[in-house]
Amino acid sequence: MMDEIKKCLEAITVQNHEHDLDLVSALKKLDEFLSLHANELDPRMRHFLQNRSYEKALLWLSGGEPKKGICQK
Question: Whole-model pTM?
């Protein structure tokens, strides 16, 4: 599941990169993952996807530490 999420995140955030998914398909797929598997996701990933913080989600999946935003959740 995380590989598919990462693939979608890359399709959304990485410019000038060839992807199997177009932007709309990637967004729909992420919304579907969130809808069907929210309870199975790590709370931080769930938070990033719910708030459409796709760059932060991709950074976190890659082992980085996203900067905190203004969200109070």
Answer: 0.81
